[in-house]
Predict the 3D structure of the following.
Amino acid sequence: MLPPQVVLWDVMDTLVRDPFRDVMPQFFGMTLQQMMQGKNPTAWGRFERGELSDEQFLSQFFADGRSFDHDGFRGAIRSSYAWLAGMEELLAELAEQGVAMHALSNYPVWYRWIEERLRLSRFMSWRFVSCELGLRKPDPAIFEHAIAALGVEAARCVFIDDRAGNCEAAAACGMRAIHFRGDARSVASELAELGLTARR
């Protein structure tokens, strides 16, 4: 089997810490369960597809339309982004070997804050972000779009994500998929088995 030509990375909770489960509810003085019960059930998905602006999303965050400090919320989120352990080093090693890498991420325009803070573009492009494409995983269309845009066979693409359902959707489109379970060394080992070896 030929080695992969391209690695496509999920970003949140695969490369970068996701503030959704702790920073957001803490800002509101709520538990995650309380925030989930109160939030608008469709606003986040629309925000990730680029259908809502930042201000529109925040105005619709809660189902009851309650007001809160939008600038304070933005600041809390913006300052919270951080690499997951070992992932910056893994990307650096792969990039040094010339491995082509791109983000394939469900995320709103806030991905620009991640870039400002962590500079993922040192290692990979932000080519396939849901808010720019109007598509979200696990919709097969986002994987098919990436394959066509890259001009490579699906089997020569590796997709890495912390959500099993997204990995299954990528595999159904012909990609090789790695389910990230929080450990950089395990990902490095699985990539090595496919012919992409990082020094570990």
Q: What stands out?
A: The chain is about 45% helix and 10% strand. The two ends are 23 Å apart (CA to CA). Residues 140-150 form the longest helix (11 residues). The longest strand covers residues 100-105.
